[in-house]
Amino acid sequence: MTQLTHFDEQGASRMVDVGTKEVTDRVAVAHAKVIMKSETFRLIMDKKIQKGDVLEVARVAGIMAAKQAFTLIPMCHPLNLTSVKIDYANNSVNEIDVLSEVRVTGKTGVEMEAITAAAVCAITIYDMCKAVDKGMVISDIHVVKKSGGKSGTFVFDKNSA
Prior knowledge:
alpha+beta; Alpha-Beta Plaits; 5-stranded antiparallel β-sheet; 3 helices; 5 strands; elongated
C-alpha cells in the first residue's frame, strides 16, 4: 500500500520535501464538465450572455486559477508554471467539457494546478450564466493524464474509477 506523503510518522500534516527530487518536465491534463439547458448552451455559443464572451472569460479564470493553486490547497507547492492551456471539447447541445493542460519543469507535479484550472473554469461558466440557468451542474472533475517525475505516466481509465 502506498504511504500518504503529507503526514509524518506521528500523523502530523506536512508539506512534502521535494528538495532532493529530480527536475523533470511535467505535464497534467484535467477535465471538468458543465451541464446546462440547451438554451443556455446556445446563448454561450452565440456569445449572447450579457456578461460577455463566457468561454474566453472562463479560459482566463482557469489560467489564473492554475497559477494560484498553492494559495488554495494547503500542501501544494508554489510552482513556476511554464504553460497553462484551457480548451473546450466534445461540446454538445447542453454540455461543455473543459480540458486544462498545465506544464512545468520542476521537482513536483502539476496535477493540482490542472484540476484547479478546470474546476475554476467550469465555476466561471456557471457564474456568468447563472442569471439564465441556475440549475447548471458541474461534474466529472478529474485528472485525465499526467507525465513526468518518479511515478511516470498516468492515464485515467473511466472503467476503474
